[in-house]
């Protein structure tokens, strides 16, 4: 015996679609942020010769000490590697965090 479900009303489908689109956008943003954090860790690995796990710890500590979101710290570190000026507060926090781990 086959059971069939009644089709969803259009309002339910629209709500489900909206929810899925929002979730997809959030996941895309998370993937982009994660990639930038990984790139910033790579910068720290190359410059300070630290292991990847330590690079993440450094970024997290700088984020906490400067009250800046992790992905923003990552963007700043990447910009610094590309020749942009490192904000003084981030520079001090970055130096201190790296020195504590060496």
Describe this structure in words.
By secondary structure, the protein is mainly alpha-helical. The protein has one domain: Orthogonal Bundle (Arc Repressor Mutant, subunit A). Helices cover 77% and strands 0% of the residues. The radius of gyration is 21 Å and the shape is elongated. The N and C termini lie far apart (69 Å).
Question: In the CATH hierarchy, what is the architecture at level 2?
Answer: Orthogonal Bundle
For the sheet with most strands, the description reads: none
Apparent shape: elongated
* First and last CA, distance: 69 Å
> Would you state the CATH class?
Mainly Alpha
**How many strands appear in the DSSP assignment?**
0
Task: Tell me briefly what this model is.
This protein is mostly helical.
Record keyword descriptors for this entry:
single chain, 102 residues, mainly alpha, Arc Repressor Mutant, subunit A, 4 helices
List the helices and strands and how they pair.
Blueprint: H1 10-48, H2 52-66, H3 70-81, H4 88-100
